[in-house]
Amino acid sequence: MNILNELTGKFPQEDYPKESRIHPIAGTHPVKGTWYIKREDELGFFTAGGKIRKWRTLVPSLVSKGVDTALLIGSSQSNNVLGLSLLLIEKGIRPLPILLNSKDPLPRGNRLFLELTVGSRQLLFVEREEWHRVEEIALSLQRKLSAEGCKAEVIPEGSYLTEAFFGALTLAADILRNEVERGCSFNHIFIEAGTGLQAIALILGLAAASHPGSVSVLLLADKEEIFLEKLEKWRLVLEEVSGIRLCSSSMHFSLFRPRTQKAFKPISGKGWEGLVSFAQSSGVWTDPVYSSRLFAEAFSEGKTKEMEGDILVIHSGGLSSLFGFEKELRACLPSCD
Ligand SMILES: *Cc1c(COP(=O)(O)O)cnc(C)c1O
Questions:
Q1: Measured by CB atoms within 10 angstroms of the end CB, which terminus of the chain is less buried, N or C?
Q2: Cα 53 to averaged position of ligand 1 atoms, centre (Å)
C-alpha cells in the first residue's frame, strides 16, 4: 500500500469510483514525447472527474455531522453544484443551490438538469454585483435555517474544503497505480486549476510519494501568487495531518496561463472547432470551460518547453456542460452549400 492510500484511508470515504485508466492520445500532435490521457471523465457522467474524488470524503463528513440541508454556492453551469446535489439527494440531504445569476433567457446545460432535479423554487439567484458577498448571503441563510431547526452547511464554490482535499488526494494515488500497470513513470503531468484544489492535491500527493515527475498547472482563474499562497496553506494542512515533512524541493511543478482568452469562461469561435476536431482525431470529447482549453494549451506548452518522455494530461470530466452549447456545436457541422 502506498503512502497516499494510507493517508486517505484515515478518512471515512464513500465507495465512489476512483480508478480511471490511461491510454495514449490518438491522432498526430506536433510535439515530442509520448502523450497519454487519464480518463477521469469515465468515472461517471454528472458525477465525474476530480470532483467525484473530492466528494468521496466530503459526503461522509456531511453525513456524520447530521447535516440535512446543504447550501451549494456556484455558477449556474457549475459541475460541482449539479453533481454534488445528486449525491446529496441519494443521502437524504436537501441541496439548496445559491447561484450566480446568468443572463440566459431559458435554463440550459447543467442549470437545466439542476433545476429539473432540485426544483426551480429551491434555486436562489444572486446578481453579479452582489456576488462578492455570496458567502455572507449563504451564512445568513444558514442562520435562518438553524433557527427553524435545520442543520445546514455551506459548501463553497468547487467544494474548496479540507473535507474534500483528502478525497482529492486519491488522484495522485491512482496515477501511481497506472504507472505500475503500464511500467512507466511520467515526466510531466498536465492539469488545470479552477479553485486549484485538485491541482494542489496532485502536486502535494506526488511530493508525499517522492514522485520525480513535474506537474504543469494551467491557471484558468487565479493569478500565480494566489495559487502559490493556496499551495502553501494546503502543504501545512497535509503536513499536520500526515506527519510527513514536505519541503519545497520535493514539490515539482510549474504554472502557466492560457495564451489566448485570459478570462475564465467557456471557449468561443475557433475554440469550438478545436474542441470538435480533437474529438474527431482522438475519440475524446472535452468540456468547453476546462479540458478543451487544457489540451490545447498543454500541446503548445509542451512544444515551447520542448518536453520529452512520457507526458500525461488529466481529463477532469465536466462533459455535461456541453448540453448548453448545441448551437455552437451545430455550427461546426460541415455546411452543405
Ligand atoms: C471543477 C473542475 C475543475 C477545477 O477543479 P478545482 O479543484 O476547482 O481547480 C477542473 N476541471 C473540471 C472539468 C471541473 O469540473
A1: C
A2: 11
Sheet order of strands, 69-75 included:
124-126, 94-100, 69-75, 152-155
What's the pLDDT tens digit per position in 293-308?
999 999 999 999 999 9
Prediction pTM value: 0.97
Rounded to the nearest whole angstrom, what is the distance from the C-alpha of residue 91 to the centroid of ligand 1? 23
Radius of gyration of the chain (CA): 20
- Cβ of 193 closer than 6 Å to ligand 1, yes or no, is yes
Q: Is the CB of residue 55 below 6 angstroms from any atom belonging to ligand 1?
A: no
Distance CA 49, CA 266 (A): 18
- CA neighbor of 312 nearest in space, from 295, 287, 289, 288: 295
User: At a CB cut-off of 8 Å and minimum separation 6, what does 177 contact?
Assistant: 19
Tell me which of 226, 290, 314 to substitute to probe ligand 1's pocket, judged by most ligand atoms within 8 Å of the beta carbon: 290
**Domains parsed from the chain with CATH numbers:** 3-49+164-325 (3.40.50.1100), 52-162 (3.40.50.1100)
